[in-house]
UniProtKB/TrEMBL annotation:
The keyword Transmembrane does not apply. SUPFAM superfamilies: KorB DNA-binding domain-like, ParB/Sulfiredoxin. Residues 91-175 form the ParB/Spo0J HTH domain. GO terms for biological process: chromosome segregation. Residues 359-369 have a biased composition (Basic and acidic residues). GO terms for cellular component: chromosome. This is Chromosome partitioning protein, ParB family.
Amino acid sequence: SPETYDPENIAHLKASIAVLGLVQPLLVQKIDSKYAVLAGGRRHAALKELAADKSEKGFTAKTKVDCRLVPEECDVTTALSLAENITQAPMNAIDEFEAFARMMEVDGQTPETIAKTFGTTVAAVKGRLRYGLIHPDIRAAARAKTITLDTMKAFAEHPSQEVQKEVYEALTKDDSYLQAYTVRQALKSRGVQVSDDIGAFVREDYEARGGAIAADLLEEHSVLEDAALVETILLEKLTAAAEQARAKLGFAWADAMVRYDYATMADYGRVYPGPIEPDEAAQKRIDEITSELEKLQLEMEDVGLEDDAYNALYERVDTFEDEARDLQEAYSVEDLARAGVMASWSNGQVTLHVGLVRPEDTVKEEDARGSSSSPTGEEAPDAGEITYPASLAEDLKTERAMALGAAMALHPEATLDLTLFKLVSDVLTSGMSVTQAIKTDARKEYRNHAKLDEIDGTSLEQVAAAHDALDLSWLDEARSPADQFAAFRALKPGEKAKLVAYATASTTQSCFARDRQRDSLMHDFEIEIMPDIRAHWTPNAALFNRFKKAWLLKILGEDLGLAQEAVTLASSSKKEIVAFCDKLFAEPFATLTDAQRAAVAAWCPPMMQTAGVACDEAEPAAQTLEPDSEVAQAA
């Protein structure tokens, strides 16, 4: 009815049509021998006002306007009415949910045709359709703002309105505030969506056994309602995977659990393969792998290598190293006779936990010589040991020197004192220089690094900012040195300190943490100006790419306290683990505990710490895993 339209809205349309004409035709359909306007009611009302307005000469009751005729047999009333509302005045979100659902159910339209009608995307239509058939009482609660729109949407996790109503009544009987998270958790016990990773994994068997499915308007949101049957099938599949691995490796037993229970599994032991003497064929293959690894190492030293190519080479190295290890390691007969395989569901796939020993089969160390050792009784090598190759150690020294230089540039007064002290002491005292960490012959240090373009750039940015803050007005090449010196002397003391600090910072030598006994001066000075190297340097993918997969798992599990994540990631590729670590250090996850967040904020290789670990640069630092730790098992 025209009287329901906003007069101001009609006035605007009237003015627009008077100037531009009717840009968009009316949509009409013949009903009971008359033509009804299905879409364009506001335009029609504006046209009638123009015709009634005697001052508008171009519009009369006889003026013809463009119309688009809808066939009489076409039942598109719902669609066209909705088109009018969406294109001319925004609808309430819940109205859209209901209207789109009605268009599919009553008019037989598809998301594609609805999207085409309203000039939107199929994804947007599907998003609305998900909520189109939420129980009316729940929609009413959202209209009345008793619950939020997000909470209402959460009920769409299950397509059955009966289930929705039951859960809604159960959760609101105490008049407590209802949250979307609470709704989703409650609905999980009422079935599994077919698009869920478990739902997709078991669906074929579930349907074959006649399991009930609650159908949704959109197939991917249908639900497998028999949660017990879903779990039964999942356990059967996990057990089959465990049995297949058991038979292949020769273990004594196989078992399965839906979710790996860390509390329960803490009582289990674990055995590891030990070194064996390879036969002639195996030795030949090992030699081939060694040759391939040498070639790959040379390729990886190419400074022009793109990131993707570099990562691909690392993955090949990991694959070859795993193959070589399998040829040189094996489980003992005693271990195979008592250990087994446990399968669980993790991150959308079957995860195998190999070499577990049940509590009843676990014996004291003195009675189980083969449990973590080789058949010869020698201790098995620890796959998680971090040894820092020479090339990586040299590059880390460069990165640490850059961080120290940034700290010096940001502390000009202290660095000025250090520079003057070294200059005076080296001249006035006899014997060794007070420190070799900085130069006083005014030559900028050359930075040598295999992957300088990939490392964290925080220190470089800080030094650049310090350079931009320097007063270089005195440095005019058109002046004579004497005139430059006069201008330099006229600078304020603070500006001179910045210049000296920047120059000294540019001379810092490649270094690791200072040993107090070898260089007490720089040891204490570094602690003063750089108490935390992480203020100038952050570990990133450039570093993690150069670590073995087992090293990364050790760092996550033992250094950062993310043991569960380390075990979960053990089945992932090294590339995925590197990406996880890169994101973790770039912006620590909101889910971390305070202790984990502090560990992430402080972690760096031991030799990179300011006050920390005195290390012989000829023998890079190494750390070892406890052989029975959970992360060692994952590695």
